[in-house]
Amino acid sequence: MKPANHPYHHGNLRQELLRAAEAALEARGVQQLSLRELSRELGVSHASPQRHFATKQDLINALATVGFQRFDAIAAKATAAARGQDFKARLTKVALAHLGFALKHPALLALMFEAKRQPALPPELLTALQSAFSHIPRILKEGQEAGKIVPGDPHRLALTIGAVVQGLVAIAVDGKIKGDSLKVIVPEVIGQVLNGLSTGKAKA
Amino acid sequence: MKPANHPYHHGNLRQELLRAAEAALEARGVQQLSLRELSRELGVSHASPQRHFATKQDLINALATVGFQRFDAIAAKATAAARGQDFKARLTKVALAHLGFALKHPALLALMFEAKRQPALPPELLTALQSAFSHIPRILKEGQEAGKIVPGDPHRLALTIGAVVQGLVAIAVDGKIKGDSLKVIVPEVIGQVLNGLSTGKAKA
DNA sequence: ACCTGAACACCGTTCAAGT
DNA sequence: ACCTGAACACCGTTCAAGT
Question: Does B149 lie at the interface with A, CB-CB under 8 angstroms?
Answer without folding.
Answer: yes
